[in-house]
Every structure is written in C-alpha cells, then in structure tokens.
Amino acid sequence: MSPSRILYVITDLETGGVPLFLHRLATHAQRSGLNVSVCSLAPPGPVSGMLTEAAVPNIGLDATGPWDWRVLERLAGHIGEVRPDLVHALLFHANVSARAACLLNGFPTNRLVCEIQTVEIERPWHLVVEKHTQRWCRTIVGNSPSVIEHLRSAARVDPSRLQLIFGGVDAGPIEAARAVGRTALGIHNDDPTLLWVGRLDPVKGLDELLGAFARVAETCPCNLLLAGDGAYRPRVEQLIDDSPVRRRIFLLGSRSDVPVLLKTADVFVFPSRTEGMPNALLEAMAAGLPCVATDVPGCRDVVTHQVDGLLTQPSDPGDLAASILRLLSDSTLAQRLAAAARAKVRREFSLDRCLSAYLELYDRIL
Q1: Cα–Cα distance between 31 and 27 in angstroms, integer?
Q2: Whole-prediction pTM value?
C-alpha cells in the first residue's frame, strides 16, 4: 500500500512561529513514512527554502493579498493535482481558503483538518467567519487550552469539533548551544542582558517593552537584544531612536542562532498582548533562562507565576519593569524559576510528544 498523502496549506511561508512549526511537522511526518507536500497561498518565502532543503515539495500560489479570491481556484486545482488523502490547513486565511477550495474541488471535508494557533483579539470578524464555516472541516486543532476555549466561547465552534494538541519544542539543541561573545553582538560591557525573540508586530507588546526597559536601564544598567523582523520594524526603530537608553538597545533582525542568543542572555522578556502557544517563550524556558511574560492567553498556559517564571499585567510598562528588576536583583529567585522552567518544558512540552499527537490524529481520520 502506498503511503498516505498529506497536503499542508498555510497562509505564507515567511519566517515566523507557525511556518517554522509547519517545517518541523512536515519533515517529521515525512520521516514517519507519509507522502507530504506544502502549499502556501502567498508567494514562496524563507521557509520554502528550508522545506526544499529537507526534500519536502512545496509551492506558492502567489496570492497578492488576503482578498485575492483567485487563489481559491488555484488551490482547488492544486488539490485536484495532488489528490491528497488528507488536507491540513494552518492559519485563518489558509483555513477559510482550504474549506472553500475543498468544496469547489469536491474533496471530502471530513478529511480536512484546520488549525488555529493564536487567541485572536485584533480581528473579531475572523471569529464570525470561523463560526459560519466550521462545518466545512472535520477538526479544528488548537495548540493551547486558551486557544480551544477562545474558539469555543468567542467563535462558537462546536466542542466536538475541537482538538487540543499542545505545542512543543526540541530542548536538546537549545540546551547544547553555547553562549557567544557579546562583542559579536555589538555589546561592549558586562552588564546584564535582556532578550526578546519574535515577529515585530504590535500585538507583541514592543512599545511596552521599550518603555519598561528605559525605566530598568536607568535603575540597573543593562542591555536589551531584540531578535526578529516584521512590518512593525519602522515603528520599533523610531521608538529606539527616541529612547533615552537607545545605545543599550540592539535590534538584531532575523536570526538563525536563537539558541545561542538564549544562552548569551540573562533574562528573557515576552510582553505579548495575546498568544497561542508561544514557541519563543518555551525555547527560553528550555534554555534555562528566567522569564518574564504577560498574564495573557498562551503565556499563562506555559508560565505559572512565581513557580517557573513571572507574569505581569499586559500593556503595563511599570509592572513589566518591576518584574524585570526583581529578577536582576534576586539571583536566587532567578535561578529557581529558570530551573523549574527547564524541567517543565522537558516534562510537558516536548516536541516529540507534540508531533506524535498529530500523526495519531491523521491515523484516526484516515
């Protein structure tokens, strides 16, 4: 019998949490004996190259934007060419497009899996669309209890259609990484260094982070590394230029050596306004970094306040600054939280457990 064919559909393959997760999932599924391919609604992105290097076939459908409805016909045609046994879509636009394309193509919607990896607060109309199109797929996967509850309560998704699969990270390479000399990052002092990693986006709380850091650095000399890129970069650059401690802030752009940065920093700071299952936070915990995060969906699914990290009020630079200073001034607390965080990731958020759960889901459906 030939291996089952899985077609993954995603909104884009730019560098970000969900595309990178898809890379890990697709390569794992392929190594497990499935026939895997990936389709992006948008033109090819950096993760497209990573998939190609891993011998995972992938294409971009060249959608010009979220309202380019011509992509539905192209996706329906691609499904007809690939003839998958199961379609797995990730992210809102890919989910809706896959539902419509499967209907156009005649592909059985009881073999369509959709996935949401964030608690949507910025675009409430997404929830309305989710509510009215949910019946055109078999299962909707959420990667944290907060995502599942949000889909149930805010989007009125039928609970029988929801499937929780916790996100996970591969702790091995993170733990094996070694710190880099700080001069290589442009830092020419021995002061403590804070680190943030992610996509430059308003929802990530970067305005609050830079405001909090100015307060912290004036009290306790330290540095701030920002690793990531995105459409919000011009605003972040302006905030840095306007900061009284701008010489201590280092905007690194996209990095392929995040484990090295985690081992180089002293405290990880993650002030998002909402999340789903934040990989960057899990990776920092796996690296044994003391973490400060906001008490919002996603982050609170990962961090237990004062047990394996500190949670602060969202959109509150003062509270964020106080928590950062608490870790910088209390090494015993910082070490205790970091050790508990590392153990928690190993125990509850392993990548192998996460990926195995997806294969079990595919088996049940097929």
Answers
A1: 6
A2: 0.89
Measured between alpha carbons, how far is 342 from 99 in angstroms, rounded to an integer?
39
pLDDT tens figures, 11-54 = 999 888 899 999 999 999 999 999 999 999 999 999 999 999 99
The Cα 43–Cα 349 span in angstroms is 32
Please name each of the domains of the chain with its CATH number: 5-168+350-365 (3.40.50.2000), 171-348 (3.40.50.2000)
- Phi, psi (deg, nearest 5) at residue 226: -115, 115
Using the 8-state DSSP alphabet, how is residue 195 labeled? E
- Is the per-residue pLDDT at 162 higher than 60? yes
Over residues 65-82, the pLDDT tens digits come to 888 889 999 999 999 999
The tokens for 181 are 């000399």
Closest CA to 202 of 253, 255, 254, 272: 272
The pLDDT tens digits of the residues spanning 283-325 come to 999 999 999 999 999 999 999 999 999 999 999 999 999 999 9
- Amino acid type, 247: R
pLDDT of residue 101: 96
Q: Which two tokens stand for residue 304?
A: 């237990």
Q: Looking at residues 110-125, what average pLDDT do you find? A: 89
Alpha carbon of 246 to those of 43, 200, 216, 224: distances in Å? 36, 18, 13, 9
Residue 245: which residues within 8 A CB-CB, separation 6 or more? 213, 214, 217, 218
Task: Decide: residue 338, CB within 10 A, 0-12 exposed, 13-18 middle, 19+ buried.
Answer: buried
Query: What is the spatial distance between Cα 153 and Cα 260, in angstroms, rounded to a whole number?
Result: 40
Give CA–CA dist 153/159, Å, rounded: 10
| Inter-residue contact 298 to 119 (CB < 8 Å) | yes
Q: At 190, is the secondary structure helix, strand, or coil?
A: coil
Of 182, 129, 181, 183, the residue nearest 157 (C-alpha): 129
294, β-bridge pairs: 312
Q: 143, 277 in Cβ contact below 8 A?
A: yes
CB 81 within 8 Å of CB 107? no
Residue in 99, 98, 276, 116 with CA at minimum distance from that of residue 199? 276
